[in-house]
Amino acid sequence: MGRSMSGKRQCLNHGCRHSRRVQAAKLMGSGDVSPSKGKMMKSTRFVVSLWCSGLLFVIALFSPTASQGGAIEAEAAFKVSNYQVAYNEWKELAENGDAIAEFNLGFLYSRGLGVSLDYSKAAEWWTKAAKQNMAVAQVNLGLLYSWGKGVQLDDAKAAELWRNAATQGLPEAQQYLGYVYLIGKGVPKSSNDAIFWLTKAAEQGNVDAQVNLGAIYLSGTDTDKKLNLAFLWYNKAAKQNNAKAQYNLGVMYLKGVGVESDTALAMEWLKRSAAQGYQGAKEALGRMSPKTQTSL
Predict the structure, then answer these.
(1) Total-model pTM
(2) Were 158 and a residue from 60, 145, 216, 287 both cysteine, which residue would form a disulfide, CB within 3.0 to 4.6 Å?
(3) Of the candidates 272, 195, 263, which has an alpha carbon nearest to the alpha carbon of residue 237?
(4) Cα separation of 260 and 120, whole Å?
(5) What pLDDT, in 10s, does the model give residues 219-274?
């Protein structure tokens, strides 16, 4: 990787784990699976559709102690939304083979910041950074290949890029790789590989992977049904404020699926999900008796 990679990095606005937030774009439709237990709410159904996040709009920046003045100027310009100056500074560094600058140029093109939005240019710069083994560039480039934006659609290439990033430990890449193994997109379908990579991502706190594992273990479609593990992963995702997980966790408590029945906790999680606008939780609460709700 370019010599800039030796410096410490900061993240602004978007990012992946630690200080990064991932902008979500649901790629799959929803699907309901009726639970095998429970008599209290026969019309309430678990939602076990799988989902992934969208592009990792990570802006990898140099630390103020970095020796390259252009990098510091680019960071300062970006922070005050002077994207044209940031672009000019990063372009000079990128043309000298700096991986972070290459990634950042791709970021600017992917968002239309200081330049016209151009996925083909984003792909061009992310390809350069990806060839230097920059994991976040590999993830974003993989998404462009999976969408056919700026490059020709190529699911196998997307999976290859995600594998490279996943083996570096990037949880978002592990989540994407697990998902494509689950549905057989660009790779042979493999439940074992899917669960392997999703678990790696989930153990790092990736909420998408946690929700997907909850769905896998609850439905029992791709592996043996393991309600205790479904509860475990939905519980972790719910605590990260994922509305779908909060809903399913509430239903599990309500019906005693994978956990001892607890109406109070069921109501708590359903209310938290509904407060985020999750329709299934609103409908579930609507079917609960007013007496039950007011007594909690």
Answers:
(1) 0.79
(2) 145
(3) 272
(4) 53
(5) 988 889 999 999 999 999 999 999 999 999 999 999 999 999 999 999 999 999 99
Amino acid at site 147: W
Q: What secondary structure, in 3-state letters, does the chain show?
A: CCHHHHCCEEEECCCCCCCCCCCCCCCCCCCEECCCCCCCCCCCCEECCCCCCCCCCCEEEECCCCCCHHHHHHHHHHHCCCHHHHHHHHHHHHCCCCHHHHHHHHHHHHHCCCCCCCHHHHHHHHHHHHHCCCHHHHHHHHHHHHHCCCCCCCHHHHHHHHHHHHCCCCHHHHHHHHHHHHHCCCCCCCHHHHHHHHHHHHHCCCHHHHHHHHHHHHHCCCCCCCHHHHHHHHHHHHHCCCHHHHHHHHHHHHHCCCCCCCHHHHHHHHHHHHHCCCHHHHHHHHHCCHHHHHCC
